[in-house]
Amino acid sequence: MAFRMTTERLILEDLTKEDLSNIQKIARDPELMRYVLIWLENDEQISAFLKRAIEESKLADRMGYILAARVAGTGEFAGLTFLEIDPELKSTGEVGIVLLPEYQASGYGREILLKYIEFGFDTLSLHRVFGKCDNLNSASARLMEQCGLIYEGTIREHVWLRDHWRSTRYYGMLAEEYTALNP
Ligand SMILES: CC(C)(COP(=O)(O)OP(=O)(O)OC[C@H]1O[C@@H](n2cnc3c(N)ncnc32)[C@H](O)[C@@H]1OP(=O)(O)O)[C@@H](O)C(=O)NCCC(=O)NCCS
């Protein structure tokens, strides 16, 4: 059965084959993808990404939740979100969000990140949930700080991301910190 969870205004649910055009819309917007460290550079990579997400969603012991964010009520596709459990360190999960421009800066990112944090600790019993962002991506850094993730450090210029050397900031929350924030 397809996985689904809800926030105040959104539904987060498994991607389907019908989401191909939605992912293409994200992937083909260079401004949107500027700071996103996911390789969706051509149709082959986009199809492979969607195939992997759908295959992962069918596994009994799934490690990845690559979910569409859809507006509750209308079902409009607002963006791509994920929580991926590190297969080696099964206690750690990474969260990421990419919203279409028309859905940015309206508090959706906050709703999604708080939901994934809750899901990661309450349902998956993770020990650490983290997010990472380009050093130049102030919206993403602000969002993670606002949701209570703590800045852990920066890896400097470790990857060439389309047009610049990307430095990556890491933000994390530990289970005990989550419990302290949500007694
Ligand atoms: C980064 C992103 C997920 C944030 O989600 P969002 O829904 O736009 O953010 P929210 O509306 O929940 O706002 C969260 C905080 O970020 C701030 N913020 C949002 N957009 C911003 C922007 N363009 N510049 C600076 N700060 C911004 C908000 O002001 C808010 O902080 P505040 O309450 O102190 O004002 C979203 O903008 C996005 O998808 N961007 C493009 C893709 C991307 O870079 N994803 C992250 C990859 S690591």
Quick tags:
single chain; alpha+beta; Aminopeptidase; 6 helices; binds coenzyme A
Structural description of this entry:
By secondary structure, this protein is α+β, with helices and mostly antiparallel strands. The chain has one domain: Aminopeptidase (3-Layer(aba) Sandwich), CATH 3.40.630.30. It is 32% helix and 34% strand. The chain has 6 helices and 8 strands; from the N terminus they run E-E-H-H-H-E-E-E-H-E-H-E-E-H. The protein has an 8-stranded mixed beta sheet with strand order 1-2-3-4-5-6-8-7, with helices on both faces. A hairpin with a 2-residue loop joins strand 7 and strand 8. The longest helix has 16 residues. It is globular, with a radius of gyration of 16 Å. It starts with a strand and ends with a helix. The model has no long low-confidence stretch (mean pLDDT 97). The structure holds coenzyme A. Coenzyme A binds next to strand 5, helix 4 and helix 5.
Count up the helices: 6
What integer is the average pLDDT?
97
Q: How many structural domains are formed by the residues? A: 1
Radius of gyration: 16 Å
Termini separation comes to 32 Å
List the ions, cofactors and other small molecules found in this model.
coenzyme A
- What is the helix content? 25-40%
Topology, please?
Blueprint: E1 4-6, E2 10-14, H1 20-27, H2 30-33, H3 43-57, E3 64-71, E4 77-85, E5 92-99, H4 108-123, E6 128-134, H5 138-146, E7 150-161, E8 164-174, H6 175-181
Parallel strand pairs: 5-6
Antiparallel strand pairs: 1-2, 2-3, 3-4, 4-5, 6-8, 7-8
Helix pairs in contact: 1-3
The structure holds coenzyme A.
Coenzyme A binds at residues 32, 35-36, 96-99, 104-110, 133, 137-140, 142-143, 146.
